[in-house]
Write a structure and sequence with these properties.
Layout (H helix, E strand, L loop, with lengths): L1 H19 L43 E5 L5 H14 L8 E3 L3 H8 L9 E6 L2 E15 L5 E12 L8 H14 L6 E5 L8 E9 L2 H6 L11 H7 L11 E3 L5 H12 L4 E3 L3 H8 L6 E7 L5 E9 L2 E3 L7 E2 L1 E4 L3 E2 L4 H14 L4 E5 L14 E12 L19
Parallel strand pairs: 5-6, 14-16
Antiparallel strand pairs: 1-3, 2-12, 3-4, 4-5, 4-9, 6-17, 7-16, 7-17, 8-10, 10-11, 11-14, 11-15, 12-13
The structure holds the ligand CNCCCN(C)c1ncc(F)c(N2CC(C(=O)NCc3cnc4ccccn34)C2)n1.
Length: 406
């Protein structure tokens, strides 16, 4: 009885703390807060001093230990896969949970130039219970002159059974320390939740490919006047794409795709500059991970390309289906094919690859095709964050964002 009372008191105290001092951790971080907005000048909020960076890892509660994950090692990759599959992001109604595959994680987390101590695990008795990752990127911020080497943070995950131990703030502080040690002082990340202080709030849109299954798993719902068969007719797609010369990207396309992509991304306020090496990594097709198709005109000239990545969700409780197959729009560049036609072909290709839904954010030029191709706004908001950087403009509009984080 005493123990239960003690645990309840501890839990209630944590709730009270949350209500009294929301974002207790984030208030301690170099992020602009509302009343500082107009005082701060654009650029780094805190200037980092390499000599002052703590040399040893942050302390963990006893029995917990730091562990650099080697994703190339099958057993360690399996441990990361299982931790995320069982404990990573769910929708608000706990009906779906992301099921990132091992091949996907190797694609997302082993890009050129990756650091082995930026895939950070926490273990208790050899069991992985916490995870956070960084990859090195060079981000262009608001103009071509401002190029900042920084880290892209992702996959922050704490096992459900050990939440409320304040492990997440320690994971964030430790990866921040390991980034500082490499003389980098900024980070970019996204999250479905709102913490101090988003630089942009974007929205997910969904285009139904398999209307019947989306209704059966509870992803979509029918209004009074709608029926399943009417929905299927409404979203029906042709068997084959219509753009002549559309084909899967190959190695020989890397140079042209790199030029098209870098030229296109200059239109936005936040974008990466890609080397050919990086285009090889991020865009060459990988089965069940990334699909990229190019439009090749006569004499081998590539004028457009489309790409989407595979991120299934586990359907948590459903008698008939275990997974929702979702394709996510990645980067699409249309210089001669109309963007609506190019993306209509993307829908047809995704349908033929077996996807149930095609998701896209309202970033870049996506709002040019979302309505016309019958995408519906979802309940998911994706917030973009820049750590330790004050923008010239307080917020960026979604159409000014030129980066997609997986
Ligand atoms: C860097 N990492 C950001 C990407 C993680 N991504 C893909 C993500 N982050 C927050 C979201 F809000 C979200 N949404 C896609 C939309 C959606 O499909 N909502 C229903 C649904 C189906 N499956 C799931 C699984 C988790 C959450 C919602 N789910 C909303 N996507």
């Amino acid at each position: 009885q005493q123990l239960v009372v003690k645990q309840n008191t501890q839990y209630n105290q944590q709730l009270i703390d949350k209500l009294n001092k929301p974002h207790q951790f984030w208030q301690t971080q170099p992020m602009p807060n509302i009343n500082e907005m107009d005082k701060l000048k654009p650029g780094p909020i805190q200037l980092g001093v390499l000599a002052e960076v703590r040399k040893d890892p942050f302390n963990l509660i006893d029995k917990f230990e730091w562990f650099n994950v080697d994703l190339r090692n099958e057993e360690q990759a399996q441990q990361v896969y299982t931790l995320l599959k069982e404990n990573y992001v769910e929708d608000d109604d706990n009906m779906f949970r992301f099921d990132y595959s091992i091949d996907f994680l190797r694609w997302a987390l082993l890009p050129p130039g990756q650091y082995s101590d930026w895939l950070i695990g926490v273990r208790v008795n050899q069991k992985l219970v916490g995870f956070i990752t960084g990859i090195p990127v060079t981000l262009n911020i608001e103009n071509e002159q401002t190029k900042v080497k920084m880290t892209e943070i992702n996959f922050l995950c704490v096992h459900k059974k050990i939440r409320a131990n304040r492990l997440a703030p320690v994971l964030i502080k430790e990866i921040t320390r390991r980034v500082h040690i490499k003389n980098m002082w900024q980070a970019v990340y996204t999250a479905g939740i709102v913490v101090p202080t988003p630089i942009s709030q974007t929205r997910y849109y969904h285009r139904s490919l398999n209307a019947k299954k989306l209704i059966e798993v509870g992803f979509s719902s029918l209004s009074a006047r709608q029926t399943i068969s009417r929905q299927q007719k409404l979203y029906k797609l042709p068997e084959e794409p219509k753009t002549p010369g559309l084909r899967p990207m190959k190695k020989k396309d890397v140079a042209q795709v790199t030029k098209l992509l870098n030229e296109y991304l200059k239109n936005f306020k936040l974008y990466f500059k890609y080397s050919e090496e990086e285009v090889k990594h991020w865009f060459l097709p990988r089965k069940d991970v990334i699909s990229t198709y190019v439009v090749e005109k006569e004499q081998g000239v590539v004028t457009d390309f489309l790409s989407f990545y595979n991120l299934p969700s586990q359907v948590i409780k459903n008698p008939k289906y275990t997974h929702l197959r979702a394709a996510y729009s990645y980067y699409n560049v249309a210089t001669s094919t109309p963007i609506v036609q190019l993306m209509y072909d993307a829908l047809i290709l995704a349908k033929n690859e077996g996807y149930d839904v095609f998701n896209a954010l309202d970033i870049m030029d996506n709002d040019k095709f979302l309505k016309e191709l019958m995408f519906c706004p979802g309940d998911g908001q994706l917030n973009y964050y820049l750590y330790n950087w004050k923008l010239e403009s307080n917020m960026l509009k979604p159409e000014e964002i030129g980066i997609v984080l997986v």
